[in-house]
């Protein structure tokens, strides 16, 4: 029987183990923490946004943009819903964002653990792997004075993001030990730190906004959603979605600026019309009263201040130059991004094992036959919304089945009963 060693019992490693075992292999899953799948428990604020029905190539970022597609096709969202359906997880869709109906990430982890047990996978915890080699046709991995042997080795050790959950970057060293190149791992899906002093006054404000990111004057990315202002800068989904570009640009020592449109439901012309109308309607009011109901009051006070307008200034005494400034701060607020938060605060990493040295169909090393990579360890990161877990499930299934020598890659035979059938896919 073919023996498969897997380093890392996170989302991708457990999926790989299940698929390798289903394909008939004997599987040993090595985990350095005291239990598997710690990161899964914190996903989706404890509810686990396990995938998303809206799948597009551009939602997955990689230095070779087409690379993730193969694994994502071989083990698709449909396959994921079927896989979890068979493990007992009834999916629930919130606008295409898929969660377990229990709304408990713990139930997703429990389903995976039950299946590992049912398949007889040996899960060995408290086992940090510190070395791995290939001798002849066999792989050997080391943890202290313990040694494990396998016919194939899967590295599923995650990235450096949220290291308290176990992903401390040691997987990168194991990959490098086999001669694999790394694209520098950097924090992604993370908060941005900004230079200006007024953030202390803005802490706690949440507001709908469009965030656009520029490096050395060049547009990089933009996203719209609920922006969160903190005492050091910006957070929330639109910030997370553009953060990997800020990370890379700052790493390259470029000047990074975020421009924020606080009335994103309007274009510039509509916003200007709105302000003109309000000027007429609010002639007898102060400027703080003028802003009432337009934006959060803390944010309004800061924007007036930036425009050089006093809060108690009568609307009728505001000069055209001041109105212009206020309009600019409202629709094109510019803030200097000085840093991203650390790996401890990041949900994922951008960068990782260079996919140029990995086969896209099997995720096997081009340098070392029998060595496979999956999950975040590879230079693939998804946007927020279930895409990183989808990558973990798809890449895990791909390596599990291929390492076990099953022809046909990650495409499993469909089960007769499918609990995800009522959910519609939106593929473009
Ligand atoms: C707070 C938070 C919320 C998130 N929410 C979502 C979400 O809702 N939806 C979504 O799609 N994504 C989400 N993500 C991202 C997603 O959780 C990860 O992309 C995914 O879990 C990565 O899976 P992985 O198997 O590659 O790595 P991990 O889950 O990090 O697993 C790697 C495992 O390897 C082990 N390991 C590492 N090195 C060694 C070693 N040397 N020896 C032995 N074991 C080792 C680690 O202990 C760990 O258990 C979230 C992430 C965070 C931090």
Folded structure, characterized:
The protein is an alpha+beta fold. It is built from 13 helices and 23 strands. The protein has a 6-stranded antiparallel barrel with strand order 14-17-16-15-18-19. A 5-stranded parallel β-sheet has the order 8-2-1-12-21, with helices on both faces. It has a 3-stranded antiparallel β-sheet with strand order 3-7-6. Helix 1 (11-22) runs parallel beside helix 5. The longest helix is centred in the last third of the chain and has 17 residues, at 387-403. It is elongated and about 85 Å long. Residues 412-422 have low confidence and may be disordered. Bound molecules: flavin-adenine dinucleotide. The site of flavin-adenine dinucleotide has 40 residues, from helix 1, helix 2, helix 6 and helix 13.
Briefly summarize what is shown.
The chain is of the alpha+beta class and 428 residues long.
Strand order of the largest sheet: 14-17-16-15-18-19
Question: What share of the residues does DSSP label as strand, in percent?
Answer: 25-35%
Spans where pLDDT lies below 50 across 5 or more residues: 412-422
Largest sheet, if any? 6 strands, antiparallel, barrel
CATH topology of the largest domain: FAD/NAD(P)-binding domain
Structural class: alpha+beta
Rounded Rg: 25 Å
CATH classification class of the largest domain: Alpha Beta
Chain oligomer state: single chain
What ligands does this structure carry?
A: flavin-adenine dinucleotide
C-alpha termini separation: 41 Å
- Count of alpha/pi helices: 13
Silhouette: elongated
| Arithmetic mean of pLDDT | 95
The figure for the number of domains is: 2
CATH homologous superfamily placement of the largest domain: FAD/NAD(P)-binding domain
Which CATH architecture of the largest domain would you pick?
A: 3-Layer(bba) Sandwich
Tally the beta strands. Answer: 23
Percent of residues in helices: 25-40%
């Amino acid at each position: 029987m073919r023996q498969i060693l897997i380093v890392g019992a996170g989302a991708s490693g457990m999926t790989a183990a299940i698929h390798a075992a289903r394909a008939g292999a004997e599987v040993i899953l090595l985990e350095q923490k005291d239990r598997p799948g710690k990161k899964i428990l914190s996903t989706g604020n404890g509810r686990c946004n396990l995938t998303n029905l809206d799948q597009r190539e551009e939602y997955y970022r990689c230095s070779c943009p087409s690379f993730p597609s193969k694994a994502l096709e071989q083990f698709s969202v449909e396959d994921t819903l079927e896989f979890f359906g068979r493990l007992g997880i009834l999916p629930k869709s919130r606008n295409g964002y898929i969660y377990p109906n229990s709304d408990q990430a713990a139930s997703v982890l429990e389903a995976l653990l039950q299946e590992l047990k049912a398949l007889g996978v040996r899960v060995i915890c408290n086992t940090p792997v510190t070395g791995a080699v290939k001798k002849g046709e066999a792989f050997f991995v080391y943890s202290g004075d313990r040694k494990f042997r396998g016919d194939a080795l899967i590295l599923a050790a995650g990235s450096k993001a949220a290291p308290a959950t176990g992903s401390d970057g040691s997987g990168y060293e194991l990959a490098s030990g086999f001669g694999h190149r790394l694209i520098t791992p950097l924090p992604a899906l993370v908060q941005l730190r900004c230079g200006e002093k007024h953030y202390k006054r803005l802490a706690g404000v949440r507001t709908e906004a469009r965030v656009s990111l520029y490096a050395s004057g060049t547009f990089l990315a933009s996203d719209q959603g609920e922006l969160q202002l903190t005492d050091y800068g910006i957070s929330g989904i639109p910030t997370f979605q553009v953060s990997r570009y800020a990370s890379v640009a700052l790493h390259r020592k470029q000047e990074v600026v975020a421009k924020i449109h606080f009335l994103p439901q309007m274009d510039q012309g509509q916003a200007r019309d709105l302000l003109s109308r309000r000027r007429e309607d609010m002639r007898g009011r102060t400027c703080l009263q003028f802003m009432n109901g337009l934006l959060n009051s803390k944010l309004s006070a800061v924007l007036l201040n930036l425009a050089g307008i006093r809060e108690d200034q009568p609307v009728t005494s505001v000069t055209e130059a001041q109105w212009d400034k206020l309009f600019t701060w409202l629709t094109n607020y510019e803030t200097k991004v000085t840093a991203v938060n650390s790996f401890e605060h990041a949900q994922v990493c951008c960068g990782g094992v260079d996919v140029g040295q990995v086969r896209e169909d099997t995720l096997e090393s081009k340098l070392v036959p029998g060595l496979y990579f999956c999950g975040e360890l590879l230079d693939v990161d998804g946007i927020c919304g279930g895409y990183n877990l989808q990558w973990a499930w798809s890449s895990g299934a791909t390596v599990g089945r291929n390492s076990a020598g099953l022809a046909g890659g990650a495409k499993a035979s469909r089960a007769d009963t499918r609990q995800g059938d009522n959910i519609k896919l939106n593929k473009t």
